[in-house]
Amino acid sequence: MVAAVPAHIAIIMDGNGRWATRRYMPRVAGHAKGVEAVRTTVEACAERGVKYLTLFAFSSENWRRPADEVSLLMRLFVTALEREVARMHANGIRLKVVGDLSRFDARLQEKIANAMATTANNPGLTLTICANYGGRWDILQAMQKLVAQEGAAADITEEALARHLSMAYAPEPDLFIRTGGEERISNFLLWQLAYAELYFTDTYWPDFDGAALDAAIASYQQRERRFGRTSEQLVETRKAS
Ligand code: IPE
Ligand code: IPE
Ligand code: MG
Question: Is residue 2 part of a domain?
């Protein structure tokens, strides 16, 4: 049996600051280098047949950082959109940005909307950038929409809630990767990670590349995804099909 490539990979891109500090550089130099790792990873995923790649770029908690770091991150986001969208479009990539975008300045919101509109019908990899995103925010906003629509508690089902999550267009992640050595979820896709395979690496995000991606995929391919069943049941279903 050929081991399957995960259809959806979700990554917490962590370790930019430490990558820079180790080199006696300002933290923002790590973020700039991190943008290069995004480009490399997007292309590596597309080459390997991954259908959905979701990257945590800015959490709802990251506003707590020093104001100059936050504003540099925003500027980097704008320049990355300006520089990368044409190339993504040429490569058939569909770009989505999810999160509470209302807190971003009007210019950034407009660039995001344009980039999404330009690439909306592309057939290739769907790249989702989570910006001002929080897993709790996502569940809450889905719940608010659902209550406004349904009203009756009995109509609030898992499926109905999932349809209102900000990434309802994608299957749930198969593989979750966190770089930078920390082993936590940090309020990323709380609902959608219920059955993802978790992979943690000490590699700092700016050093993440195709080989690091292959190591994560190889680890994923060793796992048995049981979804609550027993190993024996899985063998039986494989025999039957
Ligand atoms: C991740 O790198 C990027 C963002 C959260 C925007 P960090 O900036 O968290 O890097 P470390 O964890 O301080 O090394
Ligand atoms: C998580 O990284 C958020 C992003 C990568 C965007 P953090 O570096 O902010 O996470 P904590 O604060 O260490 O949990
Ligand atoms: Mg960090």
Answer: no
Across the chain, the runs of DSSP E, i.e. the strands, are: 8-12, 52-59, 94-98, 126-133, 175-178, 197-200
Q: Which ligand has the minimum distance to the alpha carbon of residue 55?
A: 2
Reported as a single tens digit per residue, the pLDDT across 34-70 is: 999 999 999 999 999 999 999 999 999 999 999 999 9
The pLDDT of residue 3: 79
Q: Ligand 1: which of 13, 14, 33, 68 to mutate, judged by most atoms within 8 Å of the beta carbon?
A: 14
CATH code: domain of residue 211: 3.40.1180.10
| Positions marked active-site | 14, 62
- On the question of pLDDT at 180 being above 70, the answer is yes
Residue 15 lies in a domain: yes
What's the gap in Å between 37 CA and the centre of ligand 3?
16
Q: Which domain holds residue 114?
A: 8-240
Atom of ligand 1 nearest to the CA of 73: 6
Q: What is the mean pLDDT of residues 107-125?
A: 97
pTM over 0.85: yes
Radius of gyration of the CA atoms of the chain, in A: 19
- Token duo for residue 203: 């590699």
**Does 3 map to a domain?**
no
Domain count, the chain: 1
Q: 130, 185 in Cβ contact below 8 A?
A: no
